[in-house]
Design brief:
By secondary structure, this protein is mainly alpha-helical. Helix content is 87%, strand content 0%. It has one domain. The longest helix has 53 residues.
């Protein structure tokens, strides 16, 4: 008696597609995290410039 099983290539294809979707979603999350990190870096740099300017003002006073 032969048991009908889903073909292996179809199962592999489904798994590959799911993996690709997961990777794509992870890539999007990673890109968003990168953008947040870059924005935080810009804020930190701006704060550094403000602190440096304040230091110069204090030194001149």
């Amino acid at each position: 008696m032969v048991v009908d099983e889903p073909s292996a290539p179809a199962a592999i294809s489904k798994r590959t597609t799911a993996l690709r979707r997961t990777k794509t979603a992870a890539g999007r999350v990673s890109a968003a995290a990168g953008r947040v990190s870059a924005a935080a870096g810009r804020v930190t740099a701006a704060a550094g410039r403000v602190a440096a300017a304040a230091g110069r003002v204090a030194a001149a006073a």
